[in-house]
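Intended use. Records like the one below are meant for learning the mapping from a protein sequence to its folded structure. Do not use them to infer anything beyond what is encoded.
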Amino acid sequence: MLIYYVMDQHAHIASLVRKLLDNHLSPEELSELQRLFRSAEAKGEVEMWLADVWELSARQGTLSIDSADLYRKINQKIRLSEQVQPSAKDGNLRISRFVRPFMRYAAIFLLAVAFSWFWFGRNKPQEPQKTDTNRLLGASEVSVTYGSKTRIVLPDSSVVYLNSGSQLSYPNVFDRERHVTLTGEGYFIVRSDSLHPFVVHTADISVKALGTEFNVKAYPEERSVETVLVSGTVKILKKDQTKPIIELKPGEKALYLKAAAPKPAAAGAPSRVASVVKEQPRLIVDVDAKPDVSTGWVKNQLVFDAEPFEQIAARIERWFNVEIDIRNASLRKARLSGRYDTENIEQVMQSLQMTTSFTYKIEKNRVIIR
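Structure written out for the chain above:
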């Protein structure tokens, strides 16, 4: 019964939006749509529907939708519709001539994806799926491929933005504490709830919050786990421990340096000392002087500041879904800075080439640098 209820709710929302865009919404239906977009409880239902549209479009490689922006645009249409009186002839709303083009524009990118989601979900045979089926069974897992980003609305209405090459697992119903597991990078906007802490688990540390905004970067291939606090407070805990290492203040950044691989012991070390020395993990906390470097990706900005080229290359790989082959060993440690938002991979490489001497060749999705 639950699956049909969820899908019928989503179908009803889609139907009302379609009527609004097609200028066939009755006064009663407009009132209902107003309630959906203004009621806190119903608003969550609409946001979940928009989030589902987003997730499916990302998995199918179709349109990239900013559900928050989409919500604002539909809300704007509702306000415009309120200014128009119902037609005495058929009871439907007659939208003024200047509103129609705007609605037609929205219909192009909204309805195609929204209704493909609905009919795709209803007509597809039931089989195990990562996100949709697990959601009904009690757990969800969202993965983002290279070259993409996504936005998720959690069961408690907290919002998470996931960067390229990331994965988030979370229960469909939060219990005493709100636990999620992150691999990769996520920007968290946590709904305040003093009775139910919000905990982000990574492979190395956990980040505990009540109601706040923060960014966590925990890619397995990187040497550190980075936590940047935007507002509120968060506590950093070692994996499987309950006592915090430290509590961050807004504007601070914590770097948890993972244990380094064993390396040869220093020359002349006593024979009783092992032949290898393992660097222990440690935490570094500092003021985040340039927050846009850490969180600019949420605004679709690729920003780096005096970073080694090999680290920049890893970020570019995830950002553009390409493979970068650096064949110039001296270039790996060269530190570069840059800021990009609408540039393509060719333009980014040309820009970097202006500050550092190297040549490159792009072969399909592979960039060879010499």
